[in-house]
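Q: What changes when adenosine-5'-diphosphate is included in the input?
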Amino acid sequence: MLLLGCVADDFTGATDLANALVAGGLPTELRLGVPDRPAEPSAAPRAVVLALKSRTAPVAEAVRDSVAAARWLIAGGTARLYFKVCSTFDSTARGNIGQVADALYALQAQREAVLVCPAFPTNGRTVYRGHLFVGDLLLSDSPMRHHPLTPMTDASLVRVMASQTAEKVGLIALPVVREGAAAVRHAAAALGAAGTRYAVADAVTDADLLALARAALDAPLVVAGSGIGALLPAAYREAALLGAAQAGAAAASAPPALGARAAVIAGSCSAATQTQVAQFAPQATVVRVDPLAFPDANGLLHATLHQVDAGLRDAKPLLVVSTVEPDVLAAVQSQLGRDTAAARVEHTLAAVARHLVDAGVRKLVVAGGETSGAVVGALGVDTLDVGPQIAPGVPWTFARGGTPLALALKSGNFGQEDFFARALAMLS
Ligand code: ADP
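A: The predicted holo structure follows.
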C-alpha cells in the first residue's frame, strides 16, 4: 500500500524527507533517480521518496524527470504526491518549483488550491504572511542571498512562486492555519473555486504544520519542505490510514560492517558548512579544491586526486573541500562563469568520491545538495536505507546491495557546528 509518493528536487532533501517520515513512524524507501522496474507491491502502508537532481537543472529537464518520477509513483499505487522542495525554497531565476508543480498538477489535478509550504521550524525555517524566515532573518537578508546557484533575494513566497508559474498564487495566513485543518481546507477550496491554483500556507510552529498535514491528508498534490512530511504519519494515524503499531519511529536501519576509513566531502558554500569545515579541519587531512588554480577541468581533477592519494596514507579522516566565502565565490564565478565553476567542482568532487570508495572508504559525509547529487550519481547507488539521525533533517543512510557504504548527505545549511566529527563518531 503506497500511502505517499514523494518527488524530491535534490538528494539531501530526499534524505531529509525520508528521515522525517521514518521518524514519524511511516516505513519509507529512498530511491535515487527513477527506478527502471515498477514498484514492488506491499501490503503494509509505506512511502517511497524518489531523489532527483532537478533543482537547478534546465526547466525542461526538471519537468521531464519529475513527471517520470511521479508517473512511476502513481503506477505504484499512490493517490498522494508530495513534491519536496528546499526549506529555503531554493530555485533559480528560471524556476523550477512552479513549472514542476504545474506539470505534477497536470497528473494530479484537484479542486482545492495546492498547499505550498517549505516551513521547518526545528531548523529555523518559518513562514509568516507568506514570507519565509531563516531564524530571525527574512530569507532575502539571510546568507541564502549568496548561494552559488540559487541566490534567494525575495522572501515573499507568493511572489517567488508566481514568478515561476502562469497560474494564480494565493495565501493562507497564520490566523486561518491556527483555526485548524478544516479552516485550511475551507480556505484552499475557496481559493481553488476562485481560480487560484496554489496557496502558500503560513506555519511558525510544528502545531501549525500538523494543521497543514491534517488538511493535506488526502491531497493529490502538496508542495512542501520536509516539515509537513514529519507530521503526516501522525495525521495518517489519526485517520486510521496507518496502524497504531506504527506509532513512534519506524525502525531506523542498523549500519553494516564499515571499517575505519572515513572522509568528508564539502561542496556547499552555505554559512553552516563554512563553520563546520573550520571546526573539523584541525582534526582532518585537508584537500582544497580551487577551480581557479588550474586552467581546465582535467588539471583540477588530476591534482585533486593526487592530493587525495597522499591524504589516504594519513590516519586522519580526509576533508575534501571546495567551500569558500561569498567574496571568493564571486571572484571564481566572474572568472569562470557560475555554471562552469559549479560543474568543475561537482565533477571533481564526484570523481573524488568514486576514488575514495574504490580505495576502501566506507563512511562518507557529503555537504551540499547539488554536491550530494553529483557524488551519489558517481557512486552508482540506487537505494538507501535510512539510519540514525545525526542532526534534524540529516540521517545516516546505508546503500542497499553491493559494497557496504554509509552516506550522510547534508543540506548545506543544516547540522551542528561539530556535525562532521559527530557524524563520524556515531559509526565508529
Ligand atoms: P547547498 O546544499 O549549500 O545548497 P550545493 O552543493 O547544493 O550546496 O551547492 C553548492 C554549489 O556551489 C555546487 O554546485 C558547487 O559545485 C558549487 N561550488 C562549491 N564550491 C565552489 C567554488 N569554490 N567555486 C565555485 N562554485 C563552487
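Observations recorded in class: The radius of gyration is 21 Å.
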